[in-house]
Amino acid sequence: MKGQSGASLHQPLTGAGKEPGSGPGQVVHRPKPPGRTKHLLTLVIILLLLWASAKQTDASFSELIEGFPNMLDLLKDMFPPRWTYFDNIVQGMLETIRMALIGTTIGAIIAIPVSIICAGNLMPSRWIYYPARFVLNLIRTVPDLLLAALFVAVFGLGPIPGILALAVFSVGLIAKLTYETLETIDQGPLEAMTAVGMNRIQLIVYGVVPQLAAQFTSYVLYAFEINVRAAAILGLVGAGGIGLYYEATLGFLEYDKTSVIILFTLVIVLIIDYVSTKLREKLL
Amino acid sequence: MMKNETSVIRRKPRKNPLRWVIVLLLILVYAWALAGVPFTGFKETAGQIMKAIVAGIFSPDWDFVYLPEGEDLLRGLLDTLAISVLGTVISAVLCIPFAFWSARNMSRFRGISGAGKMVLSFIRTFPEIIMALLFIKAVGPGSFAGVLALGLHSIGMLGKLFADEVENIDYGPSEALLASGATRMQQLWFAVLPQVLPGFLNYTLYRFEINVRSATILGVIGAGGIGTPLIFALSTRNWPRVGIILLGIIVMITIIDLISGYIRKKLV
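Predict the joint structure of the above. Result:
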């Protein structure tokens, strides 16, 4: 951003400074302002896209305004929260945290070999790391709730499918961040170790791991933050955790209980985010 | 080239005195977590279903791609795309005031921007699925509830990213305009906006990529998009159809990521 504006500021100056020295034949190239038609065209395309999307989704402001009183009623029903419901959901919340913790850990353990396979500077051939990255990208395209829905179909209701979904999701996230960091590590120690005849495993243990441990831990914590949020809603498809209680309370129109769940989740997520962010700041 | 001069060993040979306490704490936490999971072995049918799903993915129900009477894959994906486009644009517009509110350099007192940041992080922690549940109560089930949920939820992240962008602006142009007698509005329009616009667009596209993923799951609770047929197919154990829908989602998201990544590379 800054570099760009700086360059456009200096362009005329350096051009003018060069001009006398570079002879009369030289033409000064000023950056042309971008054409107006291009902007107009972009705007038209965006507006068309918006119009088509609004048509496809039946979006209408009148519906929103009509529905607005309903929403206010809903909010009115939600307050004051029925705090006594808190005792019922503590267990669900603990399960949510457990799921996130175990899912992230399994994901992190699997992510270690996966990221090494994906790293261009550690693998001997691109025939290994390009396909590996392709598979990793495919995994990352499937949202966690969809994974959970799939695993529920396979393994039945309960926290196990949730944990597996979070684990798969974490592998995608942590492995991607880690292999990108792996490719930027200092090659010096690696070259030194190759020179004294270490094999690839030794290279990874003594040359790569010490450089990467802090960042890897930070990525795992980051994945944990995301997974806590995800775990809180996985219950909607029957994959365990506090999400189960949303359906229970919304189904019976007990919105004052729903608001307890929402507030409790908010507090837990904020606490975990805060602790995790502080830890990550310390690590890096 | 620079590598030879800058290869410094950064790791300090210090031992954390609290090391064993941390290890012990971790062990306790994991013991607590693992003890709480009711692991009773997998269902005996799990293997069969897994096989059926894999078989379904490799022999997808191609007829579902286009059905003349509607409710097919293409229309579901189109619906998903429309939800994410509209949701992203709504949030990109709505978050601009929030961004200027919570940018540290736009207000004189720290408290004002701090309050803005708090509001944004509050919005961010509210999952979009829960917002969709609430909007369904208000406008009825359908894509529009999904649009509103995405539009509101994305404000949290976009507002924060936009605010960071505003905080990093160069004051030169703005001061020059002030010196020539421009009003505050004119400064914003001619000096601040041109600087932040590429960043705003970049983040909006990034959020669009995220929103496409979110929109695929909104249908799970009835807020439109491809999620609804997927949940139906899952509950009726129609694995070939699950396969084709998964394929469709993966292909769509990959294409969107490629296009969006290309545009973003050109922008920055």
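Residues 184-218 of chain B form the longest helix (35 residues).
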